[in-house]
Structures are given as C-alpha cells and as structure tokens.
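Support request from a user on the community tier.

User writes: "When I paste my structure tokens into the form, the page sometimes reloads and wipes my input. The last time it worked, I copied everything first. Here is what I submitted, just in case something in the input itself triggers the reload:"
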C-alpha cells in the first residue's frame, strides 16, 4: 500500500530512453484526490472439475487527479510556466498530456514514488471567468508496466 501525503503532485516529461527532460509541479488537487488504485493483472483458468486457478502477474497503477478549479495563478512556492521545476500552467499541462505513451511519468505527491504513464484520460473541462481558469479538470493516468507489488518506483 502506498501512502500519499498531501501536497503538489509532480509530472515529468521523458525522452525515448525514459530519462527526465524536465519535472513540473501541479497545483494541489481537490479533497479526495489524488486517488491511487491498483489494477490486478493475472491469468484465470477454469479447471476440469469446475474450480478456478489463478496466477497473479502483478499490478498496474492508476492515478486520478481532480481540480474543481485548476489554479495556475498561485505558484505555491514555484515559478509558473512550462520550464523545469515550475508549477505547470494549464496550457503546459494540457500540452504534456498529448505526449505519446511512455513519455511522461507521474508522482501523486511529494512523498511518493511514481510510474511511467501508458494512457491518460482527461474529463472535458470548461473555462470560467475572465482569468481563464480551467474548471472541472479530472485526469486519470494509467501505467503500462505490470509491477510485482503495490509500490511505486523511484520518481
């Protein structure tokens, strides 16, 4: 089980060899987020007598982050923008979401490890107010590599 302390999630843009090109911080998500789930992968077979046989292959992490309002105006101790070690503004964050599978890594918080993302799903967002805040943003990151245990790797 992975314990996640509250704080800013981190996202890294990777190159083809999975070396970090830059790390960006994300605004603290809403209460109830981040939500880390472990999808169990295995092989289930029915035996001749009708009983079941199960072979566990491991677990795939799935992380959901949600913001009622994605606040990219308060740097929360970081410069704002798309450069390394900055708090990602909404444009930079959405641009990173277009990266191909295997080119981003995500960590749910400052005390947690992370995983390489194979698939991202973004719930449709709306823009509110004159400042252009993104409203109702929810992103789900799913790993592609089966992990032997429910522990996140180094970020």
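"...and here is what came back when it finally went through:"
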């Amino acid at each position: 089980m992975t314990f996640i302390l509250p704080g800013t999630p981190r996202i890294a843009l990777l190159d083809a060899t999975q070396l970090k090109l830059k790390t960006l911080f994300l605004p603290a998500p809403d209460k109830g987020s981040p939500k880390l789930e472990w999808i169990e992968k295995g092989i289930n077979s029915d035996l001749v007598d009708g009983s079941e046989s199960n072979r566990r292959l491991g677990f795939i992490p799935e992380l959901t982050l949600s913001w009622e309002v994605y606040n990219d105006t308060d740097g929360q101790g970081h410069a704002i923008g798309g450069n390394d070690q900055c708090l990602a503004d909404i444009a930079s964050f959405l641009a990173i979401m277009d990266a191909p599978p295997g080119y981003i890594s995500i960590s749910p918080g400052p005390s947690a490890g992370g995983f390489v993302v194979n698939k991202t799903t973004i719930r449709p967002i709306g823009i509110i107010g004159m400042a252009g805040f993104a409203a109702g943003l929810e992103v789900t990151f799913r790993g592609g590599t089966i992990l032997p245990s429910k522990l996140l790797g180094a970020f």
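Agent notes: The reload is a front-end session timeout and is unrelated to the input. The radius of gyration is 18 Å. Helices lie at 90-96. Escalated to web team.
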